[in-house]
Amino acid sequence: MDLSLLKPKSFKGEIKTPGDKSIAHRALILNSLGSGQANISNFPRAQDTIATLKAMGTLGMDIVQESIDSKGVSSNLVIKSSGINSFKEPSSYLDAQNSGTLMRLLLGVLSGSLISAVVSGDASLSKRPMGRIVQPLKLMGANIEGEAGGEFPPISVEGAKLKGINYDMPIASAQLKSALLIAGLSAEGKTQITEPNISRNHTENMLIDMGIHVHNESITNKIIISPGIPNMIDVEIPSDFSSAAPWIVGGLIHDDSEIVIKDVGINETRTGLLDVLREMGAKISIEQTTENSKEPVADIIVSSSDLKGIEIQGEIIPRLIDELPLIAVAATQAEGITTIRDAAELRVKESDRIKNTVIALNRLGARVEEQDDGMVIYGKGKLKGGILNSEGDHRLAIAWAVASLVSDGEVVIQDSDATQVSYPNFWSDFLAVASTN
Ligand code: S3P
C-alpha cells in the first residue's frame, strides 16, 4: 500500500512500542527445548514472531491459552512443550518467512534434534547468507545442506549427534552466536565461541535464567556453554528498543516535539543508538529504570535537539546495526558530516540497507555518498518530498516515515505495509503523534 505523509506541525505524545522481537523469538524457541509450561507476556503479534509461533507449534509446542489485547498487537501466552527430544517431524517446510533470526536459530535447534526438517523463507530471506551458520554447525557434526553449498535457503537438516567446538566467529552476529549456543546445548562437551565484537546477549541471559551453564569471559569476548536441557521459564517481554528508535530520532529532529516512550528494553548490547545520538548532541533522558526477566527496562524521553555530525565505526556497530538507516536520517539534519563505517552487514539484512538508504535520502534532496561498508552523510540539507519504496523492508518503511517529519513536501512511501514484520500498529501510532493541526 502507498502512504502519503506531510510534515506535521508538532510531534508529541506518549508511545508504547510492541514487545521486543529478538526476546520474543528466544522466549518461544528456548522454552520449546525444555518440558513443562511457561507464561510469555507482552508477546508482539508481528509477522516475524507469529512465524516463530507457527514453526514451534509445528515442532510440537502447544499454545494452552492466548489473550490478545484490544488492538491485536500483543498477547499473553501460556505455552506447553515436551522438549527437544519429543519434537515432531514436520510434514512440509518450516516457513521462516522474512525472519533471519527464526531461520538461523532454528538451524541450531534442528542440528542437535532427533528429527529431519527443511527450513525455507520468503524471497528476501532466500537471498540472505546462511553459510556463516551452516559451516560451523557442520564442524560440530551437523547434517545440514542448502542451496549453493549451504549458502542459501531452503536449508535441510537431519538431526545428528553433535560435538562441542572452539570457534572464532568471523562476524559479530547475535544470530550466528545464538545458533551455535543452541546447538551447543545438545553437543557432547563444551562449546566455546569468540565474538569479534559484542552483539546482543538475550540468548545468553535467557539460557542462564533457564539453568544452563554459560560462562562469559568479557575480556576476550569468549562464551563457553555446557550442554543441558533448559528449564522452561516465564518471560515478560519489554518493549522493543529498535521499535522505540523511530520515536527517539523523530523526536530529536522535528522542531516542535516531545516524546515519551514507555517501558523500553535498554539492554546495553542494543542501545548504541543512544550513545551515538548523545555524542551528536541529543537531549535524551532515561527514567524509571526497572528489570523485566533479567532485561533492564526504562522510559525514554526526547525533545527537539540541535545535532552535529560524528564518525560511527568499530565495536559499536553491532549495538546499533538495525538503527543505522534512522541514524542516516538524523545525520541529514545534523551540522557537518557524519560517516558510518564497518557496517557491511547492512547489505545482507532484509534488503541492502546501504544502497536503499543512499537512494532514498538522495531522492529527498539530501547529499549521501555510498561506501562499501557504510555511507557519508552531509548534514543540514533541506529535505523535499518524494516517492520512496520500502523495498519490503520494515526498518526502511519506518525510517522513511521519520524522514517525512523534516521534509518540506509530500513523502509517498510505497509498500508501507512492510512495517507489519516488527511493528503492526506503527502507522496508527505515527498518525497519533504526528499532528498536522
Ligand atoms: C538479531 C540480530 C541482528 C539483528 C536482527 C535481530 C537477533 O542480526 O540485525 O534484526 O535477534 O539476534 P545479526 O545478529 O545477524 O547481526
> What is the domain total for the residues?
2
User: Which homologous superfamily in CATH is the superfamily of the largest domain?
Assistant: Enolpyruvate transferase domain
- Radius of gyration (CA) equals 21 Å
- Give the ligands present: shikimate-3-phosphate
What is the number of helical segments per DSSP (H or I, 4+ residues)? 13
Query: In whole angstroms, how far apart are the ends?
Result: 25 Å
Percentage of residues in helical conformation: 25-40%
Q: Biggest sheet: strands side by side, in what order? A: 18-19-17-2-26
Biggest beta sheet attributes: 5 strands, mixed
The CATH architecture term of the largest domain is Alpha-beta prism
Describe it for me?
The chain has 437 residues and is of the alpha/beta class. The chain folds into 2 domains: 3-18 and 238-435, Alpha-beta prism (UDP-n-acetylglucosamine1-carboxyvinyl-transferase, Chain), CATH 3.65.10.10; 21-225, Enolpyruvate transferase domain (UDP-n-acetylglucosamine1-carboxyvinyl-transferase, Chain). The chain is 30% helix and 31% strand. It is built from 13 helices and 26 strands. The chain has helices at 21-33, 47-59, 100-111, 131-139, 147-150, 174-185, 202-209, 241-253, 272-279, 324-332, 353-363, 394-404, 426-433; strands spanning 3-5, 10-15, 35-44, 62-68, 74-82, 94-95, 116-120, 143-146, 152-158, 162-163, 166-168, 187-188, 191-194, 214-217, 222-225, 235-236, 257-265, 283-292, 295-303, 311-312, 337-340, 367-371, 374-378, 383-389, 407-414, 434-435. The strands form 7 sheets. The chain has a 5-stranded mixed beta sheet with strand order 18-19-17-2-26. A 4-stranded mixed beta sheet has the order 4-5-3-16, covered by helices on one side. α3 (100-111) links the parallel β6 (94-95) and β7 (116-120). α1 runs parallel beside α3 (100-111), α8 runs parallel beside α10 (324-332) and α8 runs parallel beside α12. The longest helix has 13 residues, at 21-33. It is globular. The relative contact order is 0.14. Bound molecules: shikimate-3-phosphate (S3P). Residues 22, 101, 173-175, 178, 199-200, 321-322, 345 line the site of shikimate-3-phosphate.
